[in-house]
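hey m, so remember when u said the tokens were messed up on ur end? i reran from scratch. heres the input so u can diff it against urs
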Amino acid sequence: MEDLNLKLKGMSCASCANNIEQAILNVPGVVEGNVNFSSDRATVRYDPKQTNINIITKAVVDVGYEAQIIPADLSIEDDAGNVQQQREERNLQRRVLVGAILSILLVIGSLSHFNLTLPSFLAQLENPWVQLALASPVQFWVGREFQISAWKAFRHRTADMNTLIALGTSIAFFYSLWVTLNPNYFTTQGLSAEVYYEATAMIITLTLLGRWLENRAKGATSSAIQALMGLQAKTARVVREGRELDIPIAEVALADIVIVRPGEKIPVDGEVVSGYSTVDESMLTGESFPVTKQVGDEVVGATLNKMGSFQFRATKIGKDTALAQIVKLVQQAQNSKAPIQKLADNITSWFVPVILAIAITTFVVWFLAIGNFTLSIVTMVSVLIIACPCALGLATPTSVTVGIGKGAENGILI
């Protein structure tokens, strides 16, 4: 069996994670697969005789998401990935801000529903055409990711939280547009000619605000891993052909003779061949006093050399070092699932289809009972919007991941 770690893109709720996990598990040859929504990671164990990495990643793509292979060696995410993540964060923050401003104006314009009189300079906000102009950017720009994700889910015959948001806000928006274009039709039918642009805008903005906060929480869960990775040295001073060379740590080879001077971090694991020193190994053992190192003793990468200078032979590099193994253990723990988390994922997998059925039933029952089309639409939209399962699927994995990460930061491996 072989293990595969994937970085996922496009997930917006626990239902997405469940869809990806089921797609991975359905690949012949895959014996185990876990998708962690809070860290955007997937861990897969598979039989290389029956399947391969390309088939597994294609299964993820086929259900509407992106997957990138995480290298097995110990490496910090490249600068390009961090820049892209920061760019996406700023874009999300910008859309939340624009949505909030336009939503507040729309809410002010809707105060007439409560028999409140607006000052003359705000009276234009009550005009349905003005509200349409304010709500359109929120519906089609601020909330575009809901529409795109819902369409992707529909194409792959699935449904998720985006489906609920997109359906609810689109129905409310286009119903309001119909009212704006044909107000006389509603009054002649004895129906209320009210528009609900402020509701669609507020729903999109508040949901996007939640997603922004969610992304911040998900970013915090990986900070422990990044902190562990940051412990390692960036370069190593090796002796090759009688010369001392400073090279990136990734280029250190087995049996290389590495020189460590006072105050430097030990780059990789090895055995001392000459010299004498004391080494701070507290990051590994918690021991507060430096440990004496002399010829024949083992040294561990990422620990700190204190007083003396010595040379050692590299015995473990890359993914085989003690630090890499610690990082791997923490990642495995973060990507594993507690029983309660599996229960939450199972619930969210059928939650959305059930909510869609309940919403349609709500519309039919209200319309048959009272014959008011407007009220029937509003009640159906309310069911779609209020029934988002995000908190259910996010709470457990986030708390588990953050807890394990905090433990790792303090030298406790769970």
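this time it looks ok to me. The CA atoms of residues 97 and 396 lie 29 Å apart. if urs says something different then somethings off w ur setup not the seq
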